Amino acid sequence: MRTDKILSMLGLAKKAGKLAGGEFSVEKAVKSGRAAVVIVAADASQNTHKLFINMCTFYQVPCYLYSSKEELGHALGRDIQASVAVLDDGFADAIEKRLLQAGVEQSVAEYEEFEDDDTDEFDRM
Fold first, then answer.
1. In this structure, is residue 24 part of a structural domain?
2. CA separation (Å) from 94 to 30, 100, 117, 122?
3. Which of 42, 46, 115, 123 is most buried, judged by most C-beta within 10 A?
């Protein structure tokens, strides 16, 4: 088990009541605009990654894949934790800075850009 500043900061945010953990709580925080940054365990399922990356991209919330479910859980006093949302801008800025220093890139969904040709779908019929 490694100890690092990012996991320590997440633990502090949890103690301060500035962290939402678990799929439903994180989703609610993102959709309500309360989430400042989202971290998803790198070893979470492909569906979990896709869900949070797409949601965070849509709602313009930074999302990072980092650590493991066990390490995130241990930092938060749980067995496992697949996703967390930091609710405080100060904690979020500090955590995001450390993530970038560690070489962790922000995860963003890639959408195809469609050209708008100003024609309605029904005009083509």
1. yes
2. 19, 10, 43, 50
3. 42
CATH code where residue 73 lies? 3.30.1330.30
Sheet-wide strand order for 19-21: 19-21, 83-86, 37-40, 63-65
Separation between Cα atoms, residue 11 and residue 40, nearest integer Å: 15
The amino acid occupying position 48 is: T
Spatial separation of the C-alpha atoms in residues 111 and 125, rounded to whole Å: 27
Count of domains for the chain: 1
For residue 119, with 0-12 CB atoms within 10 Å meaning exposed, 13-18 middle and 19 or more buried, which class applies? exposed
Enter the pTM of the model.
0.85
> pLDDT below 50 — which residues of the chain?
1-2, 114, 120-125
pLDDT digits (tens, 9 = 90+) for 19-41: 999 999 999 999 999 999 999 99
